[in-house]
Amino acid sequence: MVLMDNDTERPPVRTVRRLSRPDGASRGRGGQRFVLIGLILASVYSMFPVWWLIVAATKDRVGLYQTNGLWFSGMHLWENLHQLFTYHDGIFLRWTANSFLYAGVGSLGGTLVALAAGYGLARFDFPGRNVVFACVVGSFLIPIALLTLPLYLLFSEIGLVDTPWAMLIPCLINPFSVYLAKVYTESTVPYELLEAARLDGAGEVRIFFSVVLRMMTTGGATVFLLAFVNTWNAFFLPLTVLRGEKNWTLNLGLYNWTGNRLESGVDLTSLVLTGALLSIVPMAIMMVAMRRYWRTGVTLGALK
Fold this sequence. Notes:
By secondary structure, the protein is mainly α. The chain has two domains: 38 residues; 227 residues, MetI-like (MetI-like fold). The chain has a two-stranded antiparallel sheet. β1 and β2 form a beta hairpin. The longest helix has 34 residues. The mean pLDDT is 84.
């Protein structure tokens, strides 16, 4: 047996370089940049029509047709506003009041009805509850345009055409709002609290107004906001059931001005653009004022 000396030279050991895996933070930063770029592009795409509308509302007739549509060419906004508010005896202010009436009162009543119906579907066990809920889900899948003609025929029979009730009554019933109210009720109103209130002697009506509504503030605000925006932007229903211009909404009135661009020597295009700019201000104020409620409400519905 031959013993090898420890000093015997050994072949050199080759160092193997191990490829490191990118850490989670790097991957996260890459994904965040991608999402941020997508959000920026989506924001620019969404704000582009609003920017064009702001620029167009500041121009006179010559600047509107002969200058760059994406940049200012003189400040004539106050002149356009004065002409808008005084044209045709201030009919634009009447249309604005009508829109606030239909969207505000109708959405408030519709929210109350939706919360009551959603609470009943979520916390009461009665025969046919699943069938009723299936009808609710199926009904909000039907386009509103298909229901406009039956509503017109019904209101014609009872004499409600060309009255505010022709707009307010359809706003009181919104199946999608009932669905949202049911989801929010299941997430926020526990059975134990309702049983405790019943043991204390509270009736069902008192429980709903004193307990359920207070716990459903976030969900109710979300339902009201969605209903308000939907009613404010409604067009086909008021076009069908409203005849006289004194009962028109903003959208319907501006649409009528669009069809008559030149009337009595007045360029109605500038009035339409200025009125369209003003019509988005109430919704913007509503979104900003209620952002605390609808942010939490959307998250709550998503978790459910």
